[in-house]
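Long-time lurker, first post. I've been practising inverse folding by hand and with some scripts of my own, and I keep getting stuck on stretches where the structure tokens seem ambiguous. Below is the full token string for one chain I'm working on. Before anyone asks, I'm not after the true native sequence, just a reasonable design that respects the backbone. If someone could post their per-position residues I'd love to compare against what I wrote down in my notebook.
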């Protein structure tokens, strides 16, 4: 099984969650990801690490207060006897030490434990000791929506609160790069707003038009962009027919780019809680993938997020045509 082909197949599989199952199966054929888990000081964080290790996805090292971690593991009945722990005093030190180990080449990815996301990303973005690149950090969810015939990427729902045009350019490019790694050779990118026409009173429509022009001029590469598009016309061929739109993206988007974090956060929760979508998330734009999981995530979603990190940490593959 080819890892990059594991999510892209159409039409949607009849078996629920089959795309994620195939992704996990494909990533098990790859070497375990050398991973630093930053400050895993909760039973949930420790359980997520052990789940991923038992599935053969990761070779983890825990970075945090050793006595506290071992005490939590004992209380929760989690066996850490063969798991390495790099001892630190507190969460700030955990983030700094984990990033140092990544910079030294010991690890190929980070996983957030129980410290705040802002605290981890602040350390990642440190100008001298961090893992920043010339690309803006952004978060992408890869969604498996039961009633949608293809994987659906949604960005940014977790990091950039009110991104300006320059930030949106990086958000779009990060998502395109991820889509290509999961086998979508030329992803269709819908820039979302409330309407399909450019309206000076709605700033997101101006940004959408500018992003499309940037793609035409080569400032965004690898995807096919259109916008502004409302959510219905981004994903529904029937809505496109009724509104008489002509678009190579509308009705069949692979990537949804939201105007801001609030819109994205609400949309992903609507899809997961009302449409029973699976959501695997990853942070892109740093030197290595950063896996963010939530206590509310199912085991399946935590494993799928880790599998994305495994896939992204591999050497860049040749583009796969779909």
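-- Answer (accepted) --
I ran through it position by position. Result:
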């Amino acid at each position: 099984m080819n890892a990059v082909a594991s999510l892209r197949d159409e039409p949607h599989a009849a078996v629920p969650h089959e795309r994620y199952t195939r992704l996990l199966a494909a990533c098990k054929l790859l070497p375990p990801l050398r991973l630093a888990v930053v400050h895993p000081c909760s039973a949930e964080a420790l359980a997520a690490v052990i789940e991923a290790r038992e599935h053969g996805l990761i070779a983890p090292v825990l970075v945090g207060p050793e006595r506290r971690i071992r005490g939590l593991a004992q209380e929760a009945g989690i066996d850490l006897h063969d798991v390495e722990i790099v001892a630190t005093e507190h969460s700030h030190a955990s983030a700094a030490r984990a990033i140092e180990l990544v910079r030294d080449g010991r690890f190929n990815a980070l996983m957030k434990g129980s410290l705040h996301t802002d605290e981890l990303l602040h350390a990642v973005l440190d100008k001298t000791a961090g893992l920043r690149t010339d690309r803006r950090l952004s978060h992408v969810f890869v969604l498996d929506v039961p009633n949608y015939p293809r994987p659906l990427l949604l960005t940014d729902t977790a990091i950039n609160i009110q991104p300006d045009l320059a930030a949106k350019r990086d958000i779009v490019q990060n998502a395109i790069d991820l889509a290509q790694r999961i086998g979508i050779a030329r992803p269709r990118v819908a820039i979302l707003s409330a309407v399909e026409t450019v309206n000076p009173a709605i700033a997101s429509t101006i940004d959408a038009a500018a992003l499309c022009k940037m793609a035409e001029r080569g400032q965004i590469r690898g995807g096919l962009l259109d916008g502004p598009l409302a959510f219905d016309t981004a994903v529904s061929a029937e809505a496109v027919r009724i509104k008489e739109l002509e678009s190579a993206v509308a009705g069949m988007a692979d990537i949804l780019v939201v105007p801001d974090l609030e819109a994205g956060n609400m949309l992903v929760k609507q899809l997961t809680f009302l449409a029973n979508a699976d959501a695997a998330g990853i942070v892109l734009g740093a030197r290595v993938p950063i896996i963010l999981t939530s206590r509310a995530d199912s085991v399946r979603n935590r494993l799928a997020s880790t599998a994305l990190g495994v896939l992204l940490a591999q050497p860049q593959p040749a583009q796969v045509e779909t």
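A couple of notes from the structure itself: The two ends are 16 Å apart (CA to CA). The chain has two domains: 1-132+286-322, 140-285. Happy to go over any region you disagree with.
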